[in-house]
Amino acid sequence: MDTFRPFTFFAIVLFLAQRTTADVGRRKVLAEDHVRGIIGAIVDNSTRFGKEQKVAMEMAIKDVYDKTSSSCDLRLITSQTEPYQTALAAWDLINKQKVKAILLPQSWEEASLLVGIGNQAKIPVLSFADSTPLWATKRWPFLLQASPDQNAQMKAIAAIVDSWEWHQVTVIYEDNDSFRSGITPYLSDALREVGVEISNLVALSPFDSSSFYTKLERLKGEQCRVFLVHLSLPLAVKLFVKAKEMNMMEKDYVWITTDPFTSLVHSLNASTISSMQGIIGVKSYYPQKDPHFQNFHTRFRKNFSLENPEEDNHEPGAFAMQAYDVVWTVCLAMRERSNGGQQLLDKILLGKFNGLGRKVKFDDRKVAPVQIFQIINVIGKSYNELGYWSNGLGFSETSTDERVVYKTSMSSLGQVIWPGRPRTTPRGWTPPTVANPLRIGVPTQSGFKQYVKVEHNSSTNSTNCTGFAIDLFQETVASLPFYLPYTFIPFDGNYDEMVEQVYLKKFDAVVGDVAIVAKRYQHAEFTHPYTESGLVMIVPVRTKNSNRAWLFVKPFTKAMWVLVVAISVYNGFVVWLIERKHRPELKGSAPYQMGALLCSAFTTLFSLNGGKLNSNLSRMATVVWLFVALVLTQTYVANLTSILTVRRLEPTVADVESLRNENAMVGYSNGSFVANYLVEVLNFHGSNIKTYDSPEEYVEALRSQEIAAAFLEAALAKLFLAKYCKEFIAAGPTYKVGGFGFVFPRGSLLLPDITKALLNVSESGRLRYLENRMIASEKCSDGDLVDEMSRLSPSSFWVLFMFTGGTSTIALLVYVVCHKRFGHKIVRRLSLAVMRRWWHQKKTLSRRLHDIT
After folding, report:
1. Which of 13, 104, 323, 350 could join 127 in a cystine, given CB atoms 3.0 to 4.6 angstroms apart?
2. Whole-structure pTM value
3. Orientation of helix 766-775 relative to helix 468-478, angle to 10°
4. How far apart, in whole angstroms, are the C-alpha atoms of residue 72 and residue 37?
């Protein structure tokens, strides 16, 4: 019994040892079976972004194990924004800890150092950088952009700017290459599509806070007041605190923030957010009513508060959800056994996994962009949720309601509280003040003083500017919704030089008879043209030497002549028929009677001496016809006299080709663009072109034949011909060139408002009134040309013709009824005679044609 006890004890120990060894081996096998791989992650635990990212990643690892019984290991490294130390730590993760994938931090400057390491090791590298350059994924095949690209977000910002009709924005961004190469193209394209320009790009460095004041002071002195801020949370907080101190969070300022800052606004305390009142922010949207999000939200708040008790707010942001989804996707990809990093990369890109988390879909190795953004308005101690913007649809108050209504303007979302709490929407720019009025250049060399005239009063040492262009500009400014102070400054130079002064910032605008031409757009922009466009050739006129042999037929139209002859023959026939039995001279052969009929018809047209009438019926018809004939002859004489005495004019030169063929001299206004147009477009030789300063000089040169033609802008030609319409005329085609417009600097914030006001003046009729008033004193009547309107037609005399025709018809009917037997015989005989005569002439003509053949 005693010997058995030691043996039994030893057996029990050996059994337990074997049992323990087996359990350890079994646990090792199970561990190797369940732990599919290690994920390395580099986070900046000193930032809110990094803190949220860390908690979300750990939650994703745990949820994958709870739902799939398959786990991944997460190895975290804190970067503390030290790129080279982070690179060494990443090298350790890859080579010693054998991670199968690595997640990079938000900063592209750090991420760019690590991408090469992961790419060399041929493992998937997922970057959370907010703006990965477009070329990065092509340079490094194993790089995946785990944060959505900025294309859709930039479109949302452009839609906001367009909603309030702002035309320029100033962009403030964090000084790094990723913004310039990864975001600038998207932002520029989106703004260009809605007609908005970037007036200024201002880079801020997190390592140089001292430059904030200098850069903000410079921006404060510029007109643009719409600022787009694309900064990380710490840098944005510094910016707004400084802007608040410099009174740049007041009325007329607009601040718009992007996702890197807006998605973390919830983490700010009340004292910090007080310096950001009125900001509009755009952030990625996650459906908060989704059960998965609600579960994640509850657990995240608990875990985050435990790990970060120093934080006042424990709400998760969009970046936390992004990190959770990415880790979930990588873990699920690791569940399927893969040989090497390339297969794992392919599985991640497919993203077809079942589970609790939302799958991250990749397109061309980039996360599919967010299509819905939430728009917030920072106010009070937090912010108001104004609504949503959906890519391709527009703005809406809700995002998930099936009855959602989309609008094109953000103004449909309700009242926005702007910086300074103004009652109206900010203009986005500041107009000139009384202390610093708009400097407007006015040409002193305008040849047509009716458009602009500059007079200097030596006694008062003041300058007075008058004319149509000046009056129109004053009307335009008066119709603006705000007060615009300005002062006119005379300029003694040509028009190209004057426009260039705007580019050189010597003038803020130019007002006068300045033509809109492409060459001048390199220095300035123009309003909508306020005159008709075109270039006109002016030439002297001469009396038209037309064929005057047939001038006597001009008073009547062809139809009128045919009707006069027809009614005369008809009246003559009626008189001949009635008077035939009373007057023997009307009897005889058929040709004799036809001659007598025609003679009777036309002698009664001009006098009463055509013979004594015996029947009252013929007297009645003749008296009425004589009255009508009297009216016709007097009208004919009057109209013929007018045609003979009025001059009929035509241009001395028909077209430009005639001038070139004759090597003729031509003229144009001094200082205008016309000289280049004549040489470069119309192919005139430079030596054949002369310049003139006034309409009077044109007149003398044309009268003396010093020049054969003058070329003027259509608006000036209209004024010139209004005064000299009896001597000169426009000839040839009108060449398409720009009309006159007001000149402003390129990208001027005032230009859209001026153009809109100018259109209002035009549509109200004031522009037409001012133009008519300008040319009223110069206008002359031009009755030189005879057209078809001066020729008389039957429509002017149809009552008289019906009167005489009706009278003669009544006399004829009465005569036929009273003399039925004789009437039928006479009519029949006359008709047969006419038919025989027609048949005889036809046979004679046919015989002659046969002989010729």
Report:
1. 104
2. 0.67
3. 160
4. 5
Average pLDDT (586-604) is: 63
pLDDT digits (tens, 9 = 90+) for 186-236: 899 999 999 898 989 999 987 777 788 899 999 998 889 999 999 988 899
Cα–Cα dist 355/334, whole Å: 14
Rounded mean pLDDT of 608-631? 72
Q: Is pLDDT of 527 > 90? A: yes
How far apart are alpha carbons 630 and 734 in whole angstroms? 48
Q: Are 232 and 259 in contact (CB under 8 A)?
A: no
* 3-class DSSP assignment, residue 627: helix
Angle at Cα 773 formed by Cα 768 and Cα 775, nearest 5°? 100
Nearest to 323 by CA among 276, 289, 357: 357
Residue 744 dihedral angles phi and psi, to the nearest 5°: -140, 160
Q: How far is CA 468 from the centre of its chain?
A: 28
583 sits in which H/E element: none
Indicate the burial class of 36 (C-beta count within 10 angstroms; 0-12, 13-18, 19 or more).
buried
Contacts of 323 (CB under 8 A, 6+ apart): 52, 53, 56, 57, 60, 103, 128
- Model pLDDT, residue 639: 79
Amino acid at 158: A
Which DSSP symbol is given to 688? G
Q: Which residues 6+ apart lie within 8 Å of 22 measured at CB?
A: none
Q: Walk across the sheet containing 254-257 and list its strands.
A: 197-204, 168-174, 226-230, 254-257, 280-284, 372-379, 382-390, 394-396
Tell me how far CA of residue 492 lies from CA of 88, 465, 635, 773, 842, in angstroms.
69, 14, 60, 27, 85
Residues 429, 749 contacting (CB under 8 angstroms): yes
Structure tokens at 441: 């250049």
DSSP H helices, 336-451, are 341-350
Q: How many CA atoms, within 13 angstroms, populate the side-chain half-sphere of residue 428?
A: 24
- Amino acid symbol at 185: P
Q: Which residue do the tokens 């490094």 mark? A: 140
At residue 540, the 3 state secondary structure works out as strand
Least confident range from 90-104, 215-229, 834-848: namely: 834-848
- Which neighbouring-strand residues pair with 126? 103, 144
Give backbone dihedrals phi and psi of 472, rounded to 5 degrees, phi first.
-65, -40
Distance between CA atoms of 379 and 433, rounded to whole angstroms? 30
Contact between 506 and 516 under an 8 Å Cβ cutoff? The reply is: no
By the 10 Å C-beta count (0-12 exposed, 13-18 middle, 19+ buried), 528 is classed as: middle
Consecutive H or E run containing 766: helix 766-775
Nearest residue to 412 via CA among 375, 372, 370? 375
Q: Are 714 and 739 in contact (CB under 8 A)?
A: yes
Chain mean position to CA 351: 42
* Residues contacting residue 202 through CB under 8 Å, at least 6 positions apart: 170, 171, 172, 173, 215, 219
Q: How does DSSP classify residue 427? A: -
Contacts of 569 (CB under 8 A, 6+ apart): 597, 598, 601
Cβ atoms of residues 75 and 38 within 8 Å: yes
Residue 150 token pair: 């900025």
Rounded Cα distance between 782 and 795, Å, is: 26
Of 190, 104, 206, nearest to 146 by C-alpha is 104
pLDDT of 389 > 90? The answer is yes
**Residue 725 and residue 782: Cα distance in Å, rounded?**
7
Look up residue 328 and give its amino acid: W
